[in-house]
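Structure (tokenized):
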């Protein structure tokens, strides 16, 4: 699917308003989603014309949320809350990033319990300059599990 064939990011992630850091979904299939984040979407975190790479973990997590949300969208469901459990082998290639950013989440592993693992990458567009890579582990609870969680 191309960018024009995808719904707005805000309709497939559980985030709202300025906390939606992704600008668009570029491509999506069963195992991988690629998104972009424009500088305007990162205004909360900008220092001049750049953003600290520490925001990259959240961009990767939101790309995973968009991946799950696209699957829900195909089934006619609303996006569900997921939890970032941790990361593994996160490599930061530079302390700052700027301009439009590309983000990829590629499903590595998952099972019916709701535990999933994604290999993620973040780069500067259009040069492809690597910013960060890592494996993020998440939990996507069922509706029943969400209802049982303390509030």
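Design, position by position:
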């Amino acid at each position: 699917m191309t960018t024009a064939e995808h719904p707005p990011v805000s309709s497939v992630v559980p985030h709202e308003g300025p906390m939606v850091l992704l600008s668009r979904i570029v491509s999506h299939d069963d195992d991988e989603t690629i998104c972009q984040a424009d500088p305007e979407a990162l205004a909360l975190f900008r220092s001049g014309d750049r953003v600290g790479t520490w925001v990259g973990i959240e961009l990767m997590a939101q790309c995973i949320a968009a991946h799950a949300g696209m699957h829900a969208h195909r089934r006619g469901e609303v996006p569900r809350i997921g939890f970032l459990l941790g990361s593994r082998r996160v490599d930061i290639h530079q302390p700052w990033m700027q301009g439009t950013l590309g983000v990829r989440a590629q499903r590595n592993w998952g099972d019916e319990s709701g535990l999933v693992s994604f290999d993620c990458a973040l780069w500067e567009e259009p040069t492809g300059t690597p910013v960060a890579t890592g494996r993020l582990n998440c939990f996507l609870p069922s509706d029943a599990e969400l209802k049982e969680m303390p509030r």
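Reviewer-requested clarification: Residues 56-74 form the longest helix (19 residues). The chain has one domain: 3-148.
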